[in-house]
Design a protein that fits this description.
11 helices; alpha/beta; 11 strands; seven-stranded mixed β-sheet
Length: about 325
């Protein structure tokens, strides 16, 4: 039977996430297992514009499943958002004989993928693109989970556990800002997992008095002498929140912005396994002659969602988790 694709390009784009390497490995190995050639496109979509690539074979991806970052480098490409940039990219596809691309990244990566597949169709070029969601923000609508989220949560938790030791000794308040861009998933998971006094997330209308001040007061009443406030970067700056706490409660919080440390480090078991499954599935989809879609995970199962549809999907706020957070951190119940 004639194979539907002959040569696949693989790239990582947007903010890096632990597990991207594991996804690249899975794509290369799954393709090689089927006798399909694989080219690594470097520095995201820019690599396709600038013909920046490396041939990949099984051994190229040895010993990277455990590594953070991405061996293919990553970038956000403004040029690729323009038709002229994508025309250059299509020329690289012609040059390399690519008929399938696996793009590992977030929403911006998939928008680029959709635009490329449309421009390719207009040019009568058969190139199918499959997206794999990888971002520590877990903000991709079509997938309950994105590669990197678990590792980033674990990193943030480890840092906050350490902070707690010193906050406890000094009986202080700590305000920790975590990443997440416009989403509060990371802050919510981390907040639950570290037993935060309060968590601020962008999905909820801010109410400083209820969200922070009341909670610190209640914790104080319950006998707690240190307070851990987790702020999603999309909900405000830790410095501003800290200033407000000082003005309102007369305490002097310490501010920590975790920043890019959350994007580094070895991927967790969940991220390695998810990346391996998604990479394998992306190649399967291309081999079937399908594509122009995003691989997602819904209720633990892999799904393959048409790219345009996938980009329209939004992720609803996890109110159930927020309620759990509220119930567990509201440690001043009827006993008081
Ligand atoms: O999307 C991943 C992410 O780490 C966000 O959480 C954050 O807002 C952003 O990227 C930071 O981007 P940069 O690496 O360009 O500073």
């Amino acid at each position: 039977m004639e194979k539907k694709v002959k040569r696949i390009g693989v790239l990582t784009s947007g903010g890096d996430a632990p597990g991207m390497n594991a996804a690249v490995r899975a794509v290369v190995r799954a393709a090689s297992n089927q006798g399909i050639g694989c080219i690594g496109i470097r520095r995201g979509w820019n690599g396709l514009i600038n013909s920046d690539f490396i041939p990949m074979k099984s051994s190229t991806v040895s010993h990277i499943i455990n590594k953070g970052g991405t061996l293919l480098y990553t970038a956000r490409s403004a040029e690729f958002m323009e038709p002229a940039g994508r025309e250059k990219a299509l020329n690289t596809c012609r040059l390399l004989g690519l008929d399938g691309i696996v793009a590992i990244g977030g929403d911006g990566t998939f928008k680029g993928a959709l635009a490329l597949s449309r421009q390719a169709a207009e040019a009568n070029l058969s190139i199918r693109v499959v997206g794999i969601p990888a971002t520590i923000d877990n903000d991709i609508g079509c997938s309950h989970y994105t590669i990197g989220f678990d590792s980033a949560c674990n990193t943030a938790i480890e840092c906050i556990d350490k902070l707690r030791d010193t906050m406890q000794s000094h009986e202080r308040c700590s305000v920790v800002e975590v990443m997440g861009r416009h989403a509060g998933h990371l802050a919510l998971y981390v907040g639950i997992s570290v037993g935060a006094t309060a968590v601020l997330i962008p999905e909820r209308e801010p109410n400083f008095e209820h969200d922070i001040v009341d909670k610190i007061r209640r914790a104080r009443l319950a006998g707690t002498t240190h307070y851990m406030i987790v702020v999603a970067e999309g909900a405000g700056s830790a410095t501003d929140i800290s200033r407000q706490i000082h003005e309102e409660l007369g305490i002097d919080p310490r501010v920590t912005v975790l920043g890019h440390i959350q994007r580094g480090g070895a991927p967790s078991a969940r991220d390695r396994e998810t990346a391996s499954r998604m990479g394998f599935e992306a190649v399967r989809v291309l081999l079937e002659g399908e594509g122009n879609s995003v691989i997602g995970i819904q209720d633990g199962h892999l799904v393959d969602i048409e790219m345009e549809e996938a980009l329209k999907m939004t992720k609803s706020f996890q109110m159930d988790r927020y309620k759990i957070l509220e119930a567990l951190t509201n440690n001043c119940g009827p006993d008081f």
